[in-house]
Write a structure and sequence with these properties.
The complex is a heterodimer. By secondary structure, chain A is α/β, with parallel strands linked by helices. Chain A has one domain: Rossmann fold (3-Layer(aba) Sandwich), CATH 3.40.50. Chain A contains 5 helices and 8 strands; from the N terminus they run ββββαβαβαβαβα. Chain A has helices spanning 34-39, 61-68, 85-96, 114-119, 133-138; strands spanning 3-6, 9-12, 16-17, 30-33, 51-56, 73-78, 102-107, 124-127. An 8-stranded mixed beta sheet of chain A has the order 2-1-8-7-6-5-4-3. In chain A, α4 links the parallel β7 and β8 (124-127). The longest helix of chain A has 12 residues, at 85-96. In chain A, 42% of the residues are buried. By secondary structure, chain B is α+β, with helices and mostly antiparallel strands. Chain B has 4 domains: 6-110, Sulfite Reductase Hemoprotein, domain 2 (Alpha-Beta Complex); 134-290, Sulfite Reductase Hemoprotein, domain 1 (2-Layer Sandwich); 303-400, Sulfite Reductase Hemoprotein, domain 2, CATH 3.90.480; 415-550, 2-Layer Sandwich (Sulfite Reductase Hemoprotein, domain 1). Chain B is 38% helix and 17% strand. Chain B has helices at 6-27, 33-41, 65-78, 101-110, 143-153, 226-240, 251-258, 260-274, 283-291, 303-315, 318-327, 355-368, 391-400, 431-440, 444-450, 512-526, 533-540, 543-550; strands spanning 45-47, 52-56, 62-64, 82-85, 91-93, 127-128, 168-171, 185-191, 197-203, 215-222, 328-330, 336-341, 352-354, 372-375, 381-387, 415-416, 455-458, 472-479, 482-489, 501-502, 507-508. In chain B, strands 16, 17, 18, 19, 20 and 21 form a 6-stranded mixed beta sheet that branches. In chain B, β14 and β15 (381-387) form a beta hairpin. In chain B, α3 runs antiparallel to α12, α10 crosses α11 (318-327) and α16 crosses α17. Classes of the chains: A alpha/beta, B alpha+beta. Chain A binds chain B through residues 57-58, 81-85, 87-89, 91, 96, 110, 112-113, 116, 119-120, 142-150, 154-159, 161, and chain B through 5, 7, 10-11, 14-15, 18, 22, 31, 35, 38-39, 121, 151-152, 154-162, 227, 235, 238-239, 243, 273, 277-279, 281-282, 284-285, 288.
Chain lengths: 161, 554
């Protein structure tokens, strides 16, 4: 069973990404790209299992966010780790749209980004390579104090010091 | 100056340990080169032509004597005994070993210093006027605001992977000494009609391949909204800046593509959500940070008497008089002057100092200027608060250590990047050009007669030597594997910032000093009264200069 790092724990990952060529949505917890999610919109209300959607860093999140907020999982794809747009998208989901479900990083992000990603509201990390998840979890603890407001901290340090 | 509390210490120390772990994993082969790249860059570590180079942050240019002694120690133990002052008020080591960088960072952390975000596609060190706090024309001391920005930008969770590097400068005075219009964000401290403090916000300035002067997107931002407004600007840039082509990735390209008006609207729309949120600065925090920048314990002095005594000493000593004239300037406090220690003696790469000189600088700061000093973007060092009666003693000591070359603001006070001698990006060498110019123009009377003149040299179009904004700018270019140099004239970094115009075809290295001499001849022949090179150029235009430089030799 594939694994995912979620809420600081290594757990089995039940989410199955839908193949690009798939013509139907199989049973179970499925992860659809935003386009697939639109294409299969008629089937999904009767789907047996959960549905999550993968969005890209360049998503116009303001325009598409509303129906996504009811989903248990929103994944944000990193085409490469140096592409930092997903950090903004996650903060908007958490802080502006008050999304409480799982925000999962997928794609090319790397272990050494976990601390900042988690600050921006990501709570699950699905590596595309064979990164050791137990070791990677250490990077979530890189810092114990921080200056700024973010998804994980309501007040900047200057309101706490 | 700002002093760390337990929170600041903890954050910087944890950063050192984070990078130590990353370095160990990299050396053990657990992190790929391309993944380690941004990690080391965001800790100041480049890999250059000959060796790694470590860029150490000097927040808004402020240093204590204690910190400078530690830098001297680091230069001696971990490097070859010298450091380089950069054009963004930072300090570079040219020869550190990767394995030792975590130890260097730990040594820096002991004296409240770091190399966080001195490189990479993130928010860099915030820069300002080297005379902040003492300038006669100051509206408000920019340093507390720079420190607030430093803390806000340090490991900002959302902005560590921007499309490109991001630089902020703050100007607190009438005259601009921070080149703030040539930064991704330039902040001008202003007061509104009600006397309240705020910022005029400029975006999209920058040098590099496409030099642009920043555009104003907000005339008055009340001071308490500074951080949330910066969040809004950088968020818009992070989401919409170009990520496909690194040469089109700076915010200036986005601002130009959208127009400043549209960019401003997008920022305002984003800010509507953030305004009055928890990042709104509190009076308590503003006064907490301001307290670190209070005036030192000045003596009360009879200004006239002090000035007379100084004039009497200067009258008897031409060398001292020249230095007094070029390297010192008046400041707010009567009977005190600000002194610029020149890091540009002939024969030394501009901005380079030895460990011994660093220790002398620290001693001078302790003895004459309340233990503090400033790095300038012109690659010199400033002691801001020197009592006039001690200037002569200071001069003698500085002179003995090669720190009193009386050339500040002259053609010999060049801004110069490390160039092809060190930098792997450079197309051409820049340091030998600077040396040749200094050798050519060594007659001080001639140099003084030319007056204020900035000559800036970059070894490639990334423009680290700010060639676009020199009155005379020199740009190294590569033509079929040979080093050539393009000359530009008419650039300026002040409030009426202007970008230099290209004079004509590039010159070979051995033609440059003659070319510069011809430019100066045209200036001297055409100037009216005490007109500067820049003013003469602005009045007579480029043609006469061009004709002379490219005239066939007779």
């Amino acid at each position: 069973m594939p694994q995912v790092l979620k809420d600081h724990c290594v757990i089995e990952d039940n989410w199955i990404p839908l193949e690009a060529s798939s013509e139907t949505v199989p049973e179970g917890d499925v992860l659809l790209t935003y386009n697939q999610w639109q294409d299969f919109s008629e089937q999904l209300p009767t789907h047996n299992g959960s549905v999550g959607v993968i969005i890209e860093g360049n998503a116009e999140i303001e325009d598409i966010v509303e129906p996504l907020l009811n989903l248990p999982l929103i994944a944000i794809n990193f085409p490469k780790f140096a592409d930092g747009r997903g950090f903004s998208i996650a903060r908007l989901l958490r802080e502006r749209y008050n999304y409480q479900g799982e925000i999962r990083a997928v794609g090319g992000f790397i272990r050494d980004q976990l601390y900042l990603l988690s600050r921006c509201g990501f709570n699950a990390f699905k590596f595309s390579d064979d990164t050791d998840l137990t070791k990677a979890a250490n990077s979530l603890q890189d810092f114990s104090e921080t200056y700024q407001v973010s998804a994980d901290e309501e007040n900047p340090l200057f309101r706490r010091r | 100056m700002y002093k760390y509390d337990n929170y600041d210490h903890k954050i910087v120390n944890e950063r050192v340990e984070q990078f130590r772990d990353q370095t160990q994993r990299y050396l053990a082969g657990e992190i790929a080169d391309e993944e380690f790249l941004p990690l080391r860059l965001q800790n100041g570590l480049y890999v250059q032509r000959l060796a790694p180079m470590l860029r150490i942050a000097v927040p808004y240019g402020m240093l204590s004597s204690h910190q400078v002694r530690k830098l001297a120690h680091i230069a001696r133990v971990y490097d070859k005994g010298y450091v380089h002052f950069t054009t963004r008020q930072n300090i570079q080591l040219n020869w550190p070993a990767l394995e030792q960088v975590p130890d260097i960072l730990a040594a820096l952390a002991e004296v409240e210093m770091h190399a966080i975000q001195t490189s990479g596609n993130c928010i860099r060190n915030t820069t300002t006027d080297q005379f902040a706090g003492v300038a006669n024309d100051e509206i408000e001391d920019p340093r507390p605001w720079c420190e607030l920005i430093r803390q806000w930008s340090t490991m900002h969770p959302e902005f560590a992977f921007l499309p490109r590097k991001f630089k902020i400068a703050v100007c607190g005075s009438e005259e601009d000494r921070a080149a703030f219009l040539l930064h991704d964000i330039g902040l001008q401290l202003v007061k509104n009609d009600a006397g309240e403090l705020g910022f005029e916000v400029f975006v999209g300035g920058g040098l590099g391949r496409t030099p642009v002067i920043g555009s104003s997107i907000r005339k008055f931002l009340p001071k308490e909204h500074l951080l949330s407004y910066l969040d809004a600007i950088v968020r818009v840039y992070n989401r919409y800046g170009n990520r496909d082509n690194k040469y089109k990735a700076r915010i200036k390209i986005l601002v130009k593509a959208w127009t400043p008006e549209v960019f401003a609207q997008r920022v305002e729309a984003e800010w509507e959500h953030l305004k009055n949120g928890p990042s709104t600065l509190t009076d308590k925090e503003i006064s907490r940070v301001k307290r670190f920048f209070s005036a030192p314990d000045y003596q009360s002095i009879n200004a006239t008497e002090s000035a007379d005594k100084l004039a009497a000493i200067a009258a008897d000593n031409t060398a001292f008089s020249r230095w007094l004239d070029r390297n010192t300037q008046s400041q707010k406090q009567a009977g005190y002057r600000s002194v610029t220690l020149s890091l540009k003696p002939a024969g030394v790469a501009p901005g380079d100092v030895t460990d011994k000189q660093l220790e002398t600088i620290a001693d001078l700061a302790d003895r004459y200027s309340f233990g503090e000093l400033r790095a300038t973007h012109n690659q010199n060092v400033v002691l801001t608060d020197v009592i006039e009666s001690e200037l002569y003693n200071l001069w003698k000591q500085a002179k003995a250590s090669g720190l009193a070359t009386p050339n500040i603001g002259t053609i010999n006070d060049m801004i110069c990047c490390p160039g092809g001698d060190y930098c792997s990006l450079a197309n051409a060498k820049s340091i030998p050009v600077a040396e040749a110019i200094q050798r050519k123009f060594s007659d001080l009377d001639y140099v003084y007669d030319l007056g204020d003149l900035t000559l800036n040299i970059s070894g490639c179009m990334n423009a680290c030597g700010h060639h676009h904004i020199g009155h005379i700018g020199i740009l190294g270019v590569d033509k079929k594997g040979k080093e050539w140099y393009q000359i530009q004239i008419g650039g300026s970094a002040n409030k009426n910032a202007s970008l230099g115009k290209v004079l004509g075809p590039s010159l070979a290295r051995d033609q440059i000093t003659d070319g510069i001499e011809k430019l100066l001849d045209v200036y001297v022949e055409n100037r009216i009264a005490d007109e500067s090179f820049l003013s003469t150029y602005q009045r007579i235009g480029i043609e006469k200069f061009k004709e002379r430089v490219y005239a066939p030799s007779t």
